[in-house]
Amino acid sequence: MLLGRHTGRNNVFLLDCSFLPSYTTKHEYREAFALFDKRGTGQVPRESLGEILRSLGQNPTQAEVAELEKTVGATFNYDEFLTVLNRPDGWKPAGTADEFIKGFQVFDKAGNGFIGAGELRYVLTQLGEKMTDEEVDELLKGFPVQDGQINYHSFVRSILSQ
Protein backbone atom coordinates (compact mmCIF):
# COMPACT_ATOMS: atom_id res chain seq x y z
CA MET A 1 0.00 0.00 0.00
CA LEU A 2 1.41 3.38 -0.96
CA LEU A 3 0.33 6.61 0.64
CA GLY A 4 0.95 9.80 -1.28
CA ARG A 5 1.15 13.45 -0.38
CA HIS A 6 1.87 16.50 -2.48
CA THR A 7 5.05 18.18 -1.30
CA GLY A 8 5.20 20.98 -3.77
CA ARG A 9 4.08 22.14 -7.16
CA ASN A 10 4.36 18.82 -9.04
CA ASN A 11 6.17 16.68 -6.53
CA VAL A 12 4.50 13.80 -4.79
CA PHE A 13 5.99 12.19 -1.72
CA LEU A 14 5.26 8.44 -1.62
CA LEU A 15 5.52 6.35 1.50
CA ASP A 16 5.50 2.57 1.31
CA CYS A 17 3.17 1.34 4.05
CA SER A 18 2.97 -2.29 2.94
CA PHE A 19 4.61 -3.37 6.19
CA LEU A 20 1.69 -2.01 8.24
CA PRO A 21 -1.09 -4.44 9.10
CA SER A 22 -4.27 -3.77 7.14
CA TYR A 23 -7.59 -3.08 8.82
CA THR A 24 -8.61 -6.68 8.06
CA THR A 25 -5.44 -8.04 9.62
CA LYS A 26 -5.85 -5.86 12.72
CA HIS A 27 -9.44 -7.06 12.98
CA GLU A 28 -8.26 -10.70 12.80
CA TYR A 29 -5.68 -10.00 15.51
CA ARG A 30 -8.34 -8.43 17.73
CA GLU A 31 -10.76 -11.33 17.16
CA ALA A 32 -8.10 -13.94 17.91
CA PHE A 33 -7.11 -12.11 21.08
CA ALA A 34 -10.76 -11.88 22.16
CA LEU A 35 -11.25 -15.63 21.66
CA PHE A 36 -8.44 -16.34 24.12
CA ASP A 37 -9.61 -13.63 26.55
CA LYS A 38 -12.17 -16.02 27.99
CA ARG A 39 -13.00 -13.86 31.02
CA GLY A 40 -13.32 -10.63 29.05
CA THR A 41 -10.70 -8.89 31.20
CA GLY A 42 -8.45 -7.75 28.36
CA GLN A 43 -5.82 -10.24 29.54
CA VAL A 44 -4.81 -13.62 28.10
CA PRO A 45 -2.84 -16.21 30.09
CA ARG A 46 0.80 -16.62 29.07
CA GLU A 47 0.21 -20.35 28.42
CA SER A 48 -2.07 -19.42 25.48
CA LEU A 49 0.58 -17.41 23.62
CA GLY A 50 1.75 -20.21 21.31
CA GLU A 51 -1.79 -21.28 20.51
CA ILE A 52 -2.97 -17.76 19.70
CA LEU A 53 0.05 -17.17 17.44
CA ARG A 54 -0.60 -20.43 15.61
CA SER A 55 -4.28 -19.55 15.22
CA LEU A 56 -3.11 -16.53 13.22
CA GLY A 57 -0.97 -18.63 10.91
CA GLN A 58 2.38 -18.09 12.63
CA ASN A 59 4.66 -21.06 13.10
CA PRO A 60 6.69 -20.58 16.29
CA THR A 61 8.66 -23.52 17.58
CA GLN A 62 8.17 -24.61 21.17
CA ALA A 63 11.54 -23.06 22.00
CA GLU A 64 10.47 -19.75 20.43
CA VAL A 65 7.22 -19.79 22.38
CA ALA A 66 9.14 -20.44 25.61
CA GLU A 67 11.38 -17.44 24.87
CA LEU A 68 8.41 -15.24 23.98
CA GLU A 69 6.59 -16.27 27.15
CA LYS A 70 9.50 -14.79 29.12
CA THR A 71 8.74 -11.37 27.59
CA VAL A 72 5.21 -11.24 28.99
CA GLY A 73 3.91 -11.58 32.51
CA ALA A 74 1.55 -14.26 33.80
CA THR A 75 -1.00 -12.62 31.51
CA PHE A 76 -0.67 -10.19 28.62
CA ASN A 77 -2.89 -7.51 27.11
CA TYR A 78 -3.63 -6.76 23.45
CA ASP A 79 -0.83 -4.19 23.06
CA GLU A 80 1.72 -6.62 24.51
CA PHE A 81 0.37 -9.27 22.15
CA LEU A 82 0.86 -6.97 19.15
CA THR A 83 4.45 -6.36 20.22
CA VAL A 84 5.08 -10.12 20.27
CA LEU A 85 3.20 -10.70 17.01
CA ASN A 86 5.06 -7.96 15.16
CA ARG A 87 8.50 -8.85 16.44
CA PRO A 88 11.33 -7.25 14.46
CA ASP A 89 12.95 -10.48 13.28
CA GLY A 90 9.64 -11.79 11.93
CA TRP A 91 8.47 -15.39 11.74
CA LYS A 92 9.87 -18.25 9.77
CA PRO A 93 7.58 -19.88 7.22
CA ALA A 94 5.97 -23.21 8.05
CA GLY A 95 7.88 -25.07 5.36
CA THR A 96 6.74 -26.67 2.14
CA ALA A 97 5.50 -30.18 1.54
CA ASP A 98 8.66 -30.94 -0.42
CA GLU A 99 10.85 -29.86 2.52
CA PHE A 100 8.98 -32.15 4.92
CA ILE A 101 9.03 -35.03 2.43
CA LYS A 102 12.81 -34.67 2.06
CA GLY A 103 13.09 -34.89 5.84
CA PHE A 104 11.12 -38.14 5.91
CA GLN A 105 13.15 -39.61 3.03
CA VAL A 106 16.04 -40.02 5.47
CA PHE A 107 13.96 -42.68 7.25
CA ASP A 108 12.73 -44.34 4.02
CA LYS A 109 15.36 -47.06 3.77
CA ALA A 110 13.61 -48.89 0.90
CA GLY A 111 13.11 -45.67 -1.06
CA ASN A 112 9.46 -46.53 -1.72
CA GLY A 113 7.73 -43.52 -0.13
CA PHE A 114 6.77 -45.38 3.05
CA ILE A 115 7.97 -45.17 6.64
CA GLY A 116 7.11 -47.56 9.46
CA ALA A 117 4.30 -46.31 11.70
CA GLY A 118 6.47 -46.95 14.77
CA GLU A 119 9.38 -45.07 13.25
CA LEU A 120 7.09 -42.15 12.36
CA ARG A 121 5.85 -42.09 15.95
CA TYR A 122 9.47 -42.07 17.15
CA VAL A 123 10.39 -39.21 14.81
CA LEU A 124 7.39 -37.14 15.92
CA THR A 125 7.84 -37.74 19.65
CA GLN A 126 11.63 -37.76 19.97
CA LEU A 127 13.18 -35.54 17.30
CA GLY A 128 12.90 -31.81 16.61
CA GLU A 129 9.64 -30.29 17.83
CA LYS A 130 8.58 -33.15 20.05
CA MET A 131 4.92 -34.11 20.10
CA THR A 132 3.17 -36.03 22.86
CA ASP A 133 1.87 -39.55 22.24
CA GLU A 134 -1.66 -38.15 22.46
CA GLU A 135 -0.89 -35.55 19.78
CA VAL A 136 0.56 -38.23 17.50
CA ASP A 137 -2.49 -40.46 18.10
CA GLU A 138 -4.75 -37.57 17.07
CA LEU A 139 -2.60 -36.81 14.04
CA LEU A 140 -2.57 -40.42 12.83
CA LYS A 141 -6.24 -41.09 13.60
CA GLY A 142 -7.94 -42.22 10.43
CA PHE A 143 -4.74 -42.20 8.40
CA PRO A 144 -4.26 -45.42 6.39
CA VAL A 145 -1.54 -47.78 7.61
CA GLN A 146 -0.59 -50.53 5.14
CA ASP A 147 1.35 -53.45 6.60
CA GLY A 148 2.60 -51.21 9.42
CA GLN A 149 3.77 -48.58 6.91
CA ILE A 150 2.56 -45.03 6.20
CA ASN A 151 2.92 -43.27 2.87
CA TYR A 152 4.71 -40.14 4.07
CA HIS A 153 4.03 -38.21 0.85
CA SER A 154 0.27 -38.54 1.45
CA PHE A 155 0.75 -37.98 5.18
CA VAL A 156 2.59 -34.67 4.68
CA ARG A 157 0.15 -33.39 2.06
CA SER A 158 -2.81 -34.36 4.23
CA ILE A 159 -1.42 -32.62 7.31
CA LEU A 160 -0.50 -29.45 5.43
CA SER A 161 -3.94 -29.21 3.83
CA GLN A 162 -5.69 -29.11 7.22
TrEMBL record:
The keyword Repeat is annotated on this UniProt entry: yes
Keyword Lipoprotein: no
BP-aspect Gene Ontology terms: mitotic actomyosin contractile ring assembly
One GO location term (cellular component): myosin II complex
GO molecular function: calcium ion binding
Residues making up the signal peptide according to the UniProt record: none
SMART domains xref list: EFh
Coiled-coil intervals, chain numbering: none
Residues in EF-hand domain copies: 24-59, 95-130
Keyword entries, A-Z: Repeat
Name of this chain's protein: Unplaced genomic scaffold supercont1.18, whole genome shotgun sequence
Biological source species: Cryptococcus bacillisporus CA1280
